[in-house]
Description:
By secondary structure, the chain is of the alpha/beta class. It folds into two domains: 3-65 and 185-402, QueA-like (3-Layer(aba) Sandwich), CATH 3.40.1780; 69-166, Thrombin, subunit H (Beta Barrel). The chain is built from ten helices and 18 strands. The chain has helices at 95-99, 157-164, 181-184, 207-215, 254-262, 273-291, 306-309, 316-329, 365-374, 377-387, and strands at residues 32-37, 40-45, 58-62, 64-66, 70-74, 80-88, 104-112, 121-127, 130-139, 144-150, 165-166, 192-195, 219-225, 248-253, 268-271, 334-339, 354-358, 398-402. A hairpin with a 5-residue loop joins strand 5 (70-74) and strand 6 (80-88). Helix 5 runs antiparallel to helix 8 (316-329) and helix 6 packs across helix 8. The longest helix has 19 residues, at 273-291.
Amino acid sequence: MNPKNxxxxxxxxxxxxxxxxxxxxxxxxxxxxLIYENGTIKVSEYKHLAAKIPAKSLLIFNNTxxxxxxxxxxxxxxxxxxxxxxxxxxxxxxxxxxxxxKGSVIxxxxxxxxxxxxxxxxxxxxxxxxxxxxxxxxxxxxxxxIEFSWNDATLAFAEVLHLAGKxxxxxxLNRDVEEKDKTTYQTIFAKNDGSVAAPTAGLHFTENVLxxxxxxxxxxxxxxxxxxxxxxxxxxxxxxxxxxxHSEFIDVSYQLIQKIISKLDDPIIAVGTTSLRTIExxxxxxxxASQQSTADSQQLTVEQWDCYELPQTFEPKIALESLxxxxxxxxxxxxxxxxxxxxxxxxxxxIANAIITNFHQPKSTLLLLVSAVIGDDWKKVYDYALxxxxxxxxxxxxxxxxxxxx
Length: 406
């Protein structure tokens, strides 16, 4: 079934503001964990996760790191212009490369107070003698192309953001960033700079939880999907066919794809919607690789409706092996590309058997993904969570959902 005709209104529920967790718990792994399997619901806590997962399972985490993507420029008039860095210009190929640029870089940005920005350049002092300057290049449909430059050529753009910017908390928290958010809105395994939102399913994991999983002989591995602001993009279209899914950068190693192939007979659990979208994208990239063996790495991407329009009969092992052969042919140790995959009811999971995730906003594409994993029982899960004082959204509790194909 192609979900183009789905109405987002069928994925709505009442979420009172008091159910939204404005702050995390003091102990990350004390968050509640709802476990759904074969139509039944059980309740535990993240600290006991190892007891709820079979030995030899493979857990796949997203190790992206949230960057200080909100930069405020104060004008002499007293007005403020806010630049929200979304993603780099296409010429940089991937976010890591753009984050390492020194002296200047071009970035796609949302601009708050754009009408007040009359002059060509705006500047601010960010560290002693370091001055950051922003220049508008062009306005596109829903963003500006901005050239940032700074007068210390030893600093990479990631360092500049750290000095100049603020962590971009989700808008639904309705509060200012606080000092502790720099730590609590970051997973303990965050490594690669590039996200404007945390992969929140990973926020619950502590060293104790990770160690208990290893003792259980659960394998842990990592990939990178840089979360874009599009993850909060509301669905305004009447049907999904008219909604443009956000596209995000992914970075997956050759070795992880090999490991996934070796674990296809064991439970593979995606930690977060971003990890799920990435590993499911690998399957479709493999199918494309089998069809486009002469393509270069720039051309191998997942478009929004690919997974409903490409051939559906490939075994996962064959698709992933095709992807590895294509990577070998192109001398790639890492797969750096973009995915626009939309996982919605009608989608059959190809790689993952389960997902660990938070509770998501009504009428969101993330809720569509949950429904793809467990069918209409998403309503049962969310009703239970609402009735039993679970905390919702980024700083809230979570759930372990085993695939319940319909």
